[in-house]
Predict the structure.
Amino acid sequence: MLRLTLSQMRRSLGRLSAAAIAIAIGAAFLAATLIAGGVITRAGYDAIAAAYGDADVVVEGDLSTAERSELLRQPDVAAADPLTAVMFQLRAHGQAHLQIMLPVPSDPRLGSLTVSEGAAPTSEHEIALPPATASSLGVGVGDKVTVLSPEAAGSSQDFDVTGITDDPRNAWSQEGGAGLVTSSDISAWSGERLDDSGTTLVAASDGVTPTELRESLSPLVGDARVLTKDEAAAAAVSELSDGGNVLVTVVLGFAAVAMLVAALVIANTFQVLVAQRTRTLALLRCVGATKRQLRGSVLLEATILGAGAALVGLVAGTALAQGALTVLNRADLDVPLPSTVSITPAVVLVPLLVGTLVTLLASLVPAREATRVAPIAALRPADAPAVGARAGRVRLGVSLLLVLGGGGVLLLASAAAGRGTGDATLLLGIGTLAGALSFVGVLLGAVFWVPRIVALLGRGLASTGTSARIAAANTVRNPRRTAATSTALLIGVTLVVMMSTGAASARTTMNHELDAHYPVDLVVEGHQADGTERLDEAGVQRALDGVDGIRESVLVRTAMVEFDGSEGDTVTVAAVDGDAAASVVRDASLVDSLDDGTLLLPASYDDKLAGDATVRSVTFDADWNRGPDGPPVQLRAVTSDLGGYRAIVTTSMLDQIAPNAPVSTVWVSLDPGADPATVLQDVRAALPDGALEVSSAAAERVSNERFVDAMLGIVVGLLAVAVVIALIGVANTLSLSVLERRRESATLRAIGLSRRQLRWMLALEGMLIAGVGALLGAGLGLLYGWAGAVVVFGNVGDVLLNVPWRDLVLVFLVALVAGLLASVLPGRAAARTSPVAALSVD
Amino acid sequence: MDTTVYRPTEQTPASSASCARSLTKVYGRGAAAVHALDGVDIDFAAGAFTAIMGPSGSGKSTLMHVLAGLDQATSGTVRLGDTEITSLGDDALTRLRRDRVGFVFQSFNLLPMFTAEQNILLPLELAGSPVDRPWFDTLVETLGLGQRLTHRPSELSGGQQQRVAIARALIAKPEVVFADEPTGNLDSRSGAEVLSFLRRSVRELGRTIIMVTHDPTAAAYADRVVLLADGRIAGDIENPTPESVLMGLEALRTLEQPAVR
C-alpha cells in the first residue's frame, strides 16, 4: 500500500505542492515565532545578568542599615554593593545630556562597567563617562562637565572627567551606556538614597561557592531573598518577560489562524484528489482493497505531505529567523542579541507536529469519502466529480446555535461595556470568547450561505457576457469547494478588517478623549521659584514667533480663586475671550457657554461647586503662605466637558476678580500640516532659559496614533500570512477546476470559445470566489471590529465607531487582483491544452 | 482572418463544402513516427450526409479533426468552403468553428450547469449573435425537444442529450456539421432516432454533415460512405446500405491482413 500511495502522490505532485506550500508557510511562521520568543527571552536574560557583573549572589529585597552591616561583617562576604542606577543632568559646552550613572563598585566583581581610558573616579566630584556621551558633550579625560542639581534650580557643580567607561556585556547599551561616580556623589546629586534600591550584589570571599554563600546569607536578611546570580537573572527574566511572553502568545495566535486557513486549503485539495481518483480507488476496491486500506492510503499520503511540508517550513522559518537576527546584529541596535538562533526541542517539534497533525485532521473527511467509493464506479465512464453530498442538518443547527448564541452574548457584552458597567477585563474575556464562538459558527455554516451569495453575485455578473455566465455557473457547481475556498479567504480578511476597524475606532475614540482632556494643542506654562507662575511674555512670544508650524498663540492670564463657603476649595482660572478661545481650543463647542459672569469649571471638578457663587482671588508665596486676597465677586459656575484642572472666565471677569493677575500661560494651536513632535522640540529649543514647562497634547496625539498604526501594521502583516495562504487556496481550486473540466473546456473551445474568453472565464471565477470571500470578510470584520472597540474602550469613554473605507476598498481590490492572479497559471494551462487532446480523454 | 467570406450554405455553389488535398498528419518523429493521414485527397459535397468509416487506427478521427480545424495538419491543404484553413491562427480558427462549423460528440459534451435551451444557444452567445427564433423553433420541433428545454443534461436520457447536442451544432446554421461517433454511447433505438434526425437535417433543412463512425448500420444512413485505411482513402460507396458497407469493410480486411490490432 505504501508503494501505491507514493506513486499516487507522484502523479498528483503539482496539486499536492500547492497544499504543501500552504502548510509550509504555516509551519515556517510557527517556527520563526518560537525562535523569536527564545531570542527575546535570552536577550532579556543576558541584559539582566550583565548588570549583575560577576557578583556571586544577589539579595532581592530591601535591607535595613543594620542588616547591610551584618552582611558585610560575614567572613564569606568579600564585598556587597546595592545595585543602583540614577540619572544625572550633565552640561558642557552648552550641550545638555541626561546620563545613567552608577556608583564605583567597592569590588571590581560587582561592577558591570570597565574603564577603557583614564581611571575610575576615586574621590568627590570626579566622573567617568561612556564614549558616546563624552563625544556628544565634547569632553575628554581631564575636561570638566557641569552636573545640575535635580532639586535646587540653578545649583550646579563642576566634575572632573577622569575616565571613559566601557560596557563589555552591553548591560546598559539600550540606555546609551552608563557612567561612574563615587557612591557619595550618587546620593548627593541624584537625590535618591542608596538604601532604597531593592537589590544588593554580593561577592564571595576566596574559596566560597555561590551556593554556600547563599546558604550562609539567607538567615541574615529577613524577608529578602538570596539568590545566586543565575537564579536571580532567571527570576528577573520571568518577571520581565511577561510582556515578551504575551507578545509571543499573541503572535502564536496569528500562527494558529494561518494554520487554520492552511487546513481549509488542504481539506479542499484532498477532497478533490479523492474525487479525481474515484476511478483508481474503485479499481483498487474491485481488485480487493478494503475500505480500511483506502482510508489508510489517504491518511498516509496526508501524513507524508504534512511532515514533509512542515519540515520544509521549519527549515525556512529557522533560516528566516537567523537571517533577521544577522541583519539586526549588523544594524548595531545596541541590543545585546545572540548571534545565532537557539534550536530547542520545542522549536523543532512543535511546527513538525502541528503541521503534520493539521494536515492529517484536514484529510479525515476526504479519507472517509474515499471509503465511500463503490467498486462499480470503476466501470462507469469518468465524469466530472458529482456535487458533494448535502451538508447535514446537525451542522446547520450547531452553526445557528453558535452564531446566535455567540453573537447575542457579544452584543450583551458590548452593551454592558458601552454603558460602562461591569468588570472591563471580564467583559473583554466574555466578548472575545463569544466573538470567537460566533465566528466558528459562521465558518461552520459557510457551506449553506456562501454558495447562495456567490450565486446571487454571479447572477449579476452573468449579465455582462457569456464567459461571465459560464464562470458564474461554474462557481456554484461545487458549493462545498467554493464555500471552503471563499471561507479560507474570509477568515483572513475578517481578521484584517476587524483589526483595522478596531484601530480606526480606537484612534477616533482616543483623539476625542484627548481633545476633551487637553483642549489646546500646545501649552507653555511658567513655574517660578517664588511660587508665582508669571512668565516672560515678551520673551516667550518672541520665541514662538520664530517657530514654524504655529497657527496662533494666545497669552493667558491666570489667578487662583477660592469659593466662599466651600471650606477653602480653590481653582485656577484662566482668562480668555470667547473668540480667542475658539481659535485655539480644538473643540470650540467646549467654550460655547462662556460669557461675562460665567465661570467654566473643568470636568474634573465636582458638581458641588456649580451654581451661583462668590469667589475671591487668593495668592500664595513659595512657602505656601497666604498673601492678600482680592475682592469678592458674584458669578455663576458652570460645569463643562473641559479637561485638565483650570477653569475659564472672560478677561473682563478676571479684571474684576484679580486685576493684577499675571500672564502665566500661552495657549498655542498648530498648523494642521505641522508635525507636532517637531514643533514641540523647536518650541523647547527656542524658549528662553527659565522655569517654563511645555506640554503638547498634539504630540501625544500623534505618538498615540503612531503607536496604534505601528501595532496595526504588525498585526495586519501577521494576518497577511493567512491571506496569502488563502490565495494559494484560490489558485488551487481554480487549477483543480481546470483539470476537472478539461473535456468541458475542450467542448467550449470546439464550439467557438476563444483562448482569451477561456482565460477570462477562469479569471472571473477566481475574482468571484475571492471577491465574495473579501466582501463577506469585510462585513464581518466591520461588525467584530465595532463590537471589539466598544468592549475594549467602553470604559474609557464614548466610543466613536468608524468605518475604515480606505482599508476596506484596499482589501477588496487586493482580493480581486489576487483572484485574477490566481487564475493566470490555471488559465494558461487550460488555454494551452488542444481541444483534440482533451476531447479524446475518456 | 476575416469572417466575411462566410456565405449561407444555400447560396454556396453546389461544389464541395469541405475538401482536403495531399493531407498528411504525422505524430511523433523518426522511428516512432506514425502517419495517421498519408496523402488524403477528398471532397465533401455541400448538402450531403457523408460517413467516414474505417477500422480503429485508420485515421478517421484525425481526418475529421483536421477538416474541422481542431487539429493542425503536418502538410497539405484543407478548405472549408472558400477558406483555406490550414494556415489560420488560433483566433481565426476559433471564429471559424464558432460561425461555420458545428460539432456533435460521442459523449454529448453538454455543459451540466446549463439547461437544454441554454446549451443549444451557447454558440450564438459565444459569438454574440442574435437568436434566429424561427430557426430555433424549427430545430426544437424537428428534434422533438419542446418539453425538455428547461431540463438540465442530468435530467435527460442519452438520446435526448444527443438531440440537444445536434440542435446546438445546427443553431448557428454552420456550413458543415462534424459528428464523431454520435451513436457510440446510445442504445440502438436512440441511435436510430439520432441518425434519422441527422438525415432529416440534411434532406429537409439543407445542412451538410460529415460523420465518423465504425458502425455499418449507422453509415448506411448517409448518402455516401468514405472508407479509410492506414491513413489513405480505401473506398467510396454511394447510396450505401448496411450490406454494401459491410462488403466494403470486408474487402478492406482481405486486402490488408491484419488491418486491425
Observations:
- The longest helix of chain B spans residues 188-203.
- Residues 122 and 136 of chain B are 12 Å apart (CA to CA).
- The two ends of chain B are 42 Å apart (CA to CA).
- The interface with chain A takes residues 61, 65, 68, 70-71, 90-91, 94-95, 97-99, 102-103, 105, 107, 109, 111-114, 122-123, 125-128, 168-169, 180 of chain B (CB under 8 Å).
